[in-house]
What does this fold into?
Amino acid sequence: MTDKNLPGHPFITYRNNELYVEDVRLADLARQHGTPLFVYSQGAMLSALAAYQRGFAGRNAQICYAMKANSSLAILQLFARAGCGFDIVSGGELQRVLAAGGNPAKVIFSGVGKTRAEIRLALQADIGCFNVESEAELDAINEVALSLGKTAPVSIRVNPNVDAKTHPYISTGLKDNKFGIAHEHALATYQRAARLPGLKVVGIDCHIGSQITQEDPYLDAMERVLELVQAIEAAGVHLHHIDFGGGLGIDYNGDTPPAADALWAKLLTKLDARGYGDRQLMIEPGRSLVGNAGVCLTEVLYLKPGEQKNFCIVDAAMNDLPRPAMYEAYHQIIPLNPRASQTSIWEVVGPVCESGDWLGHERALAVNAGDQLAVLSAGAYCMSMASNYNTRSRAAEVLVSGNQAHLIRLRETSTDQMRGELLLS
Ligand SMILES: *Cc1c(COP(=O)(O)O)cnc(C)c1O
It folds into this structure.
């Protein structure tokens, strides 16, 4: 038996030239459940979480999984059981937390456009904190809270104006982003929040972007946030917690983000040095907990060699894996059963009728029609961003633990898709 580990993917291995997630052979799952199919490693998720937990050992810290990265119920259940809270961005996400048995007191609600109905739902569920992104939102939460006879716990998302050095669509901490309250207005906004009778100020938060692979933006953001903490508290508003958001990147293709425990060792040293080490800390990691725990299995439908380009047409598409089309993101694509034959260069594309529907450019692969491939790093921002474009049904999902495979989502049917649509009478 020859085992080969994939760098950056300790829970995915080739054994005797066959690809496994933990101790489950992926070809078996593809046969049993069909493709496209998402397969997740429970061990990979828990070990990613353990890195943060090690980083925070002995601290008063709450990890709130940013569930928009992957909001499947069984995955939420796994993180809830492991002690996580959740960072939500909609009322729908709150309903998912409740359905998965999560503790609403450990929920924080982020996002620039919370509706009054969502605010009401969150207040009725007694969530832990609203991360407020504008003055107008403060007023709305205050009004809804007063109408319910409740006090809303709030934190203000401050925009530290640091460059996270990531893709512009997922950079959120710069002045010209729609997120948060500008550094220079933060103090006044806190003073205003403290005067509103339906609100209780409990914390401060920031989130500077996603797929961050360097530690400097975090250290800079912390510096900027702590300056504000000092100014806000000097003005008489106490901050019970400090929330540093999420954003830590993963290795998609040789990326080298800092390890969560090493990063937090540095951040905590800084926090201690500034005298804030005893505050409750919150973080909102998403991608770094689930991204590299998932793969998407797909079958090669047709090979279409051409003069300019060779197309390898597979049964997964931009509706299943939207990141390449949206962000020109790179996902590794590897065979379930590698062939010994010569590789050619392929454009790996899906069946959707648009040229943006590609999964990988210029990939060296030895493939035949009928072969199965695994798209790696598909645990975050894939299934949760999947759509029904081209009336394609969303894929099934399997969670693997050791040699056990649990189906956690049935493949969607066309009937599921059309439910709720009405014909004219
Ligand atoms: C998306 C998001 C996160 C998680 O980001 P990751 O890059 O997946 O860690 C955390 N906080 C907020 C407010 C977000 O919008």
Remarks:
- The radius of gyration is 23 Å.
- The pocket of pyridoxal-5'-phosphate is lined by residues 66, 68-69, 87, 110, 207, 210, 245-248, 284-288 (CB under 6 Å).
